[in-house]
Amino acid sequence: MSAQHTSAVVGVGNAIVDVIGQVDESAIDDWNLNKGAMTLIDEPRAEELTTLMLGGLKESGGSAANTMVGVASFGETAAYIGKVRDDTLGAVFIEDLRAADVAYDVAPAQDGPATARCLIQVTPDGQRTMNTFLGASSVLTVDDIDEELVAAATVLYCEGYLWDLEEAKAAIRHAMDIARANGVTASLTLSDSFAVDRHKAEWLDLIADRVDLVFGNIDEARSLLDTDDDAAVISGLQSLAQTACITLGRQGSMIVTADGVIDIPVVEVDERVDTTGAGDLYAAGVLAGLARGADLATAGAMGSCAAAEIITHVGARPRQKLSTFCS
After folding, report:
1. pLDDT, tens digit (0-9, with 9 covering 90-100), for 271-281
2. Which position has the higher pLDDT, 322 or 127?
3. Which CATH number applies to 7-14+62-112+135-325?
4. CA 141: distance to chain centroid?
5. Which of 61, 70, 177, 304 is 20 to 30 A off residue 283, Cα-Cα?
6. C-alpha span between 244 and 234 (Å, rounded)
7. Across 221-230, average pLDDT
8. Domain map of the chain by residue range?
9. What is the pTM of this model?
10. Interstrand relation of 102-104 and 153-159 (parallel, antiparallel or unpaired)
11. Burial 144-166 (b: 16+ CB within 10 A, else e)
């Protein structure tokens, strides 16, 4: 018998403090950055970029954590599973997340690497370049998965970036198994094309075996299915997953099911300041919609609206309550 659902969405991901700064295009070469990508870095490189980005906006982040904040901003209950160190940045992460009405009860690590950080450089074209030191987030294990929390959810949302870590893979599989046993929808976000390239074979198996709902952008979907033919992408997604929510940039998004494709228009804004977190907040809108029982078209529209709010300012967290902004 399924557990009684008391939480809307539970997210599992890398618990990271974001450092976000607007930089000139010249910084891409001067700082030896891989523009538009998420690059994993070590602690010395993290310290170097942190020094270069003095004055950047600092806030708790991580892809799935951003999504859970968005879900809560819609007025739905959200909880988060991720690992921080018992240090200053770890305390900041916990305080920020709880202040956003996201439940967070994972015990911080007492030793090992420092709390993770993601250094995000935003160029004048609105493109974001991310350099991530995984730090303490890399020690998330099966033991950190709250089985009762997952079993009581409506939707489980797992971050693809976490798949770079062997112990975290086991944690995600464990969480998805709990979801399946309790009638909880299991979802996975593809995170970025480089993550897809690293984990394609494993993810194809994971999606076919354990995932009900896939999130990604069109480039990630093309990479996953080894094709640039968008018709083939659609048919491939229909064969692979029950539902796939694929963002298309300025063209909005599409929700692919076995029954067809639902086109979701973009919500226009006056100025695209920073695309950081747009995909995370799109997922938040979709998840919040599904958690409250909305149909896919309505949930997709909520996702577009949430993404529209987030690109009007620097930072990956909403500055307005999405329950109001998207009403």
Report:
1. 888 787 899 99
2. 322
3. 3.40.1190.20
4. 19
5. 177
6. 9
7. 97
8. 7-14+62-112+135-325
9. 0.88
10. unpaired
11. bbbeebbbbbbbbbbbbbbbbbe
